[in-house]
């Protein structure tokens, strides 16, 4: 995998400047990584939107069944699905962000592929759409590694 999808400046900006994350694949299951990462980012002041066909309430937040169902504006789409589904989620994220219109100065629009969710073709499509990409990185590890404020 190319290091271009783990740019430190992009990772820092996405973690610090984002306000709302859509977690695709998030269910009300504390035994899953997506749950832990959503909880961590909530504790860092981020709003979360669970995205799963079951549309469950997770960590006190109402879920939606798909990115197409989103009514709330988000800054980051976290792809907490297996790598073979990452491309489909990336394409849905591209459509979602395109629906917002032109990107404003300082606005975060990113797709985050966590550890072991690697799809370079999907990451290229995301970048070509003018969005930031972080791939094969864990928000918790990056938060600590970059020594970001809690």
TrEMBL record:
It holds the Pfam family CoA_binding_2. InterPro entries: CoA-bd, NAD(P)-bd_dom_sf. Gene3D superfamilies: NAD(P)-binding Rossmann-like Domain. Residues 15-102 form the CoA-binding domain. PANTHER family: COA-BINDING DOMAIN-CONTAINING PROTEIN (PTHR33303:SF2), CYTOPLASMIC PROTEIN-RELATED (PTHR33303). This is CoA-binding protein. It comes from Actinoallomurus vinaceus.
């Amino acid at each position: 995998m190319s290091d271009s999808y783990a740019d430190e400046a992009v990772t820092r900006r996405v973690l610090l400047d984002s306000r709302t994350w859509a977690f695709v694949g998030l269910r009300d299951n504390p035994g899953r990584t997506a749950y832990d990462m959503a909880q961590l980012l909530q504790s860092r002041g981020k709003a979360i939107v669970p995205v799963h066909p079951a549309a469950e309430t997770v960590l006190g937040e109402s879920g939606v069944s798909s990115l197409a169902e989103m009514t709330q504006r988000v800054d980051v789409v976290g792809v907490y699905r297996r790598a073979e589904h990452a491309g489909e989620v990336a394409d849905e994220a591209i459509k979602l962000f395109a629906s917002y219109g032109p990107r404003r100065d300082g606005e975060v629009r990113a797709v985050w592929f966590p550890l072991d969710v690697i799809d370079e073709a999907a990451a290229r499509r995301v970048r070509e759409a003018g969005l930031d990409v972080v791939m094969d990185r864990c928000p918790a590890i990056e938060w600590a590694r970059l020594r970001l404020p809690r």
